[in-house]
Each structure stands twice: as C-alpha cells, then as structure tokens.
Write a structure and sequence with these properties.
7 helices; mainly alpha; 155 residues; single chain
C-alpha cells in the first residue's frame, strides 16, 4: 500500500509541473522558517491548549448527554489517551482506533463497555463528519483547478 500511495503522490507532483513544484517547496521552506520563531512557538502551544480544552469539553458534553457520570478532568484524560494513542494506532479517519482507545481508557477507569462504546462512537462522529462535509463542499465548489492556483501564491 505504501508503494501505491508513493506512486500516486509522485504522479500528482509530475502533473503540477516544475514551476508549481518549485513554489510548493519554497512555500514549505517559508512555513518551516516561520515555525521556528519564539512567537510562533508560543502561538502554537496556546492554540494546542485551546484545542485540547475544546475537545475535552466535547467528550464531557457528550458524556453528560448520554448520562455517563464523568468529571471534566476525566474527560480531558480520556481525550488525551485517544490523541496520544492515535499517534500509534493510526487508521484512515481513526476508524476503529478512536473507539478502541476510548473503550480502553474508560474501562481502565471503571466505566461499562456500553457507555465507553457510546462515548467513542458519538465523539468520533462529531469530530469526523463536519470536516469531511466541509471538505466535500469545498471540493465541489472550488473544483480541482484552484489547486494549482493555491500553489502559485508565494509568501
């Protein structure tokens, strides 16, 4: 499968043409340079903390909605297990691994498998469906012709 993905990526880069590939590399280098400044590092950490709090709030709200007694700190911990475990158990869109990690974390905390599966499935749907729909709408409205235009912009 890796060979297939690598081949697909190579074919995509060939279709872009030399000028677009060069601009893609220049934009990538510029982004890396920007990521090494102290200010951007602080912004990244701040945004990461906000993201963790919002996602933990999602776990906490879903637990409350399906009558699972869970404190906010427990919700943050379950979400943290899911995020860190997702680094190792990576599947497309986290299908299966997200639920497995939620069940594992909640089982270790003494929750029932039914509550754990419910929380895992509902939070996964809430986290995956909206971005997937936005991407679909974006692909339909923008089309693929704008991809080359996005690469043509320089920093």
């Amino acid at each position: 499968r890796i060979e297939w993905v690598a081949g697909m990526f190579t074919r995509l880069l060939r279709r872009l043409g030399q000028e677009s590939r060069s601009k893609l590399l220049v934009n990538g280098r510029h982004q890396l340079r920007m990521a090494t400044t102290p200010r951007s590092s602080l912004e990244t950490v701040g945004l990461s903390i906000c993201n963790w709090l919002l996602e933990g709030s999602l776990f906490w709200c879903v637990a409350a909605a399906v009558a699972i007694p869970m404190s906010f700190s427990t919700a943050i911990m379950v979400m943290g297990v899911v995020r860190f475990g997702g680094i190792i158990l990576s599947t497309p869109a986290g299908i299966g691994s997200h639920e497995f990690l939620v069940i594992t974390a909640m089982y270790a905390l003494g929750y029932s498998p039914e509550h754990s599966l419910a929380l895992g499935m509902i939070t996964h749907l809430i986290l995956v469906i909206p971005p997937a729909l936005m991407g679909l709408v974006s692909a339909i409205t923008m089309g693929t012709s704008n991809f080359k235009g996005m690469l043509a912009t320089t920093p």
